[in-house]
Structure formats: C-alpha cells, structure tokens
Write a structure and sequence with these properties.
By secondary structure, the protein is of the alpha+beta class. The protein has one domain. The protein is built from three helices and five strands, in the order αααβββββ. Strands 1, 2, 3, 4 and 5 form a five-stranded antiparallel sheet that branches. The chain starts with a helix and ends with a strand.
Length: 112
Amino acid sequence: MKLSLFKFGIPGAVIVFALAMSIMVWANNHVKEHDSYQAAISHIERDQDLIDYTGGIDGYGFFVSSNIVSSKKSGNASFRISVNGAKNDALVVIKLDKDSSAIWKVHSFIFY
C-alpha cells in the first residue's frame, strides 16, 4: 500500500510542519548552549565599534546560522548572528578556533 501526504491532507501537512519546526527550534537552542556560541556572544558584547554602530545591543535574532566542528582539544566554529540595536541592526559574521588550550579564540569578525 502506497502512503502519500496527499492522502492525509491538511492535518498531515500541519503535523509535518510542526515536527520540522520543533526540530529546528531544538537545534537552534542546542547551538546557543555551545561554548563556541557563548564565546562569540562575549566578543560581540565587547566590540566597541559594533556597540557604537547599533547604539547599544538590545538583543539577538532568534535563529542562528552556524557551523561547529569540535572535540575536547580542538575545533572551529562560524556563526551569522543578527544583532538588534537601539539605533541600527547588524548582521555579524564571526569565526572562532579552539586549539589545545581548549579556549575559543576569534580569528575573524565582521558586521554590516
């Protein structure tokens, strides 16, 4: 017997959509808990040029574009983070590396 989403109609589509959104929210929250993301946010909040441009940071966008490859001893991560500012919003692109010291270090940071 062949199953088809069309057979389940709108309720089936709603269930698939809700499941997909749940997975996306879970993955996004998981990224935001990672120590590389926390290091990126720490750097963002200390960058005076960004603070001046935005007029002060009010918050961050809900979804984060990310790529994280990490082990206990090394890793690299990149993020595209929307920053909500009092005067202007910005999109931050930040790349970090972790070496044997196990500390995430920023090696590239731009915003526009």
